Amino acid sequence: MELRHLRYFVAVAEALSFTRAAQTLRTAQPSLSQQIRDLEYEIGTPLLNRDKRNVALTAAGKVFLDEARLVLAQADRAKTLARRAAESEAQSLTIGFVPAAEVKIFPQSLTLLRGLFPDTRIVLRSLTTFEQHQALLAGDIDIAFMRPPVDESLFASEVVLREPLVALLHIDHPACALDRVALSDLTDTPFLRIASRHAGNLAQLIDDLARRDGAELQAIQEVENVLTLLTLVGLGVGFSILPDYVEQLSFRNLTTRPLAGPEVRAELVAAWRHDNAKPEITALVALTRDALSERNQ
Predict the structure, then answer these.
(1) Are 109 and 140 in contact (CB under 8 A)?
(2) How many folded domains does the chain comprise?
(3) Percentage above 70 pLDDT, the chain
């Protein structure tokens, strides 16, 4: 039994005429009659009494008519709800970003994006670079703001921010007396950093910086996220090197110092799947690029 059988039966039952029902359904009368016979055969009882002039519902037909109407109404409702859900999904934008980077990325660009797409539901997800990569592949987020490298065969991408690296110190650390800090000034302090698989190329930048300064970083401890790292530095466990967005966060007992020598910058990349054509993505990338252009100078 299929929905078309129910629709055919309801049309005949309401018109009490195979001819008029066939016209309404825009189908041939012999085909309609065969569909009703198939339905009655499957149910195991006549639903209609018919002769050459009249069509009438049997007792079973009257009961079946009420139930068929309910089923058809429910099917139409299910179709409507499914379409609404699809439309809602199409009008949403899920944005991934490395933890704490939102303080630089979103204050201006998201406000402008909402003005351009007032009907789009925006969802923000704080994820490490590794987690964003996986979420993009799975289609769980539409766009990622993460650290390079980016697999260009899988994703389109654009660098939206280049942030100077700074030393993150406990306020009582002796190096706080310096205007600029070289890693060679910190070799007696345990070094804390984000786990390599979550940090993108940030770990490589720091390793290159240490080699440049001739510093051998001691007792390296890796943590899973930036908030844990900030907490540990605030407790005096060690120091870290992070992009300068950290200067906009409020944590007790923490301070930063610029790094000595030529400036080293960490890139933040917007990445999205090649097959994701949501216009909100293009707009957000452009808005973010414009909002951050002065900071990239």
Answers:
(1) no
(2) 3
(3) 96
